[in-house]
Amino acid sequence: MNDSEKLIIALAQMHSEAGACEANFEKISQMTREAAEAGACEANFEKISQMTREAAEAGAALVCFPELAYCGYWLGCEAAKNAAVTADRFTGLLGGLARENRIAVICGYAERDPETEKIYNSCLFVDAEGNRIGNTRKVYLWGKENRIFEPGHRFSVFDTEFGKIGILICYDAEFPEPARIEALKGAEILIVPAAWSIPAQRRWYLDIHANALFNLAFVAGVNTVDDRCCGRSRIATPFGEELACASADREELLIAELDMSMLAEARAKIPYYRDFRADTFAADAVERY
After folding, report:
1. Residue 288 CB: number of other CB atoms within 10 A?
2. Reduced to 3 states, what is the DSSP secondary structure of residue 90?
3. Alpha carbons 222 and 67: distance in angstroms, whole number
4. 22-43: string of b/e by CB count within 10 Å (b at 16+)?
């Protein structure tokens, strides 16, 4: 995509069921637990499918879902293991949905590595033909996530028909380095799937907009909405200004048009890249991550 083109993007702000809660695990059988997790994932995927269809009908070329949208965020260790699927299996599910609706999809899920059996907090990115563009694993794990997931080790940027897109999962966006690493790799759009809490909602606004301004890129944060997450999915322009914002308390599709020519405009007016001194940054981090 050249900088004169426009991208219609949809952020699917939703609530995901999380199956059997950790507190009840001692009271129910393994079979019942697995059935509960499978049922929650099926219900979530039905909602993901419906919102994907609606996004495609609205003319969006890319629809993005929150962190762990497929299995729900509020999982304990055993629940995460029961809900986790391999990247190949999730590619089959998500790819079929994307192909059916002719729309690219980014969606969070619990990933099981088939070789190590380790579980990751991941996001899968498929194109409109159902092909996997990439799979991202969350690097910075928040609080109890450290007892459930293994950390990722890569901040990836994907070369797509829409431009270069990076993904930062929730807490990854609270540190300046991940967004800068992806920007130095050429990212023009940063997608932030999240389960961002109500007490931290002020930081949600600041982190999305600051990362956009500091890196002169579009940043689209797609958040969970429930009694613990603050919603307010939002898109910030390369100038750090608000382009679109969702509600705080309901499921919805936030659809906006990104004018890619704004990237060149912002980078011409604000000389951050021209004046950036590489010797102030651990440049090898770009290679290692």
Report:
1. 10
2. helix
3. 8
4. beebeeeeeeebbebbeebbee
- 8-47 residue pLDDT tens: 999 999 999 885 433 333 433 443 344 444 568 999 999 9
pLDDT tens digits, 81-91: 889 999 999 99
Which residue, 161, 159, 83, is CA-closest to 128?
161
Q: Determine, yes or no, domain membership for 215.
A: yes
Q: What is the pLDDT of residues 148-158, one digit of tens each?
A: 999 999 999 99
* Host domain of residue 141: 6-288
d(CA 289, CA 283): 10
In a domain, 107, yes or no: yes
The number of folded domains in the chain is: 1
Q: Is the distance from CB of 103 to CB of 130 less than 8 angstroms?
A: no
Name the nearest CA neighbour of 2 among 189, 191, 260, 262: 260
Residue 129 maps to a domain: yes
Q: How far apart are CA 70 and CA 45, in angstroms?
A: 6
Whichever domain contains 176, its CATH number is 3.60.110.10
Catalytic residue ranges? 67, 138, 170
The answer as to whether 108 is a domain residue is: yes
What is the CB neighbour count within 10 angstroms for residue 271?
10
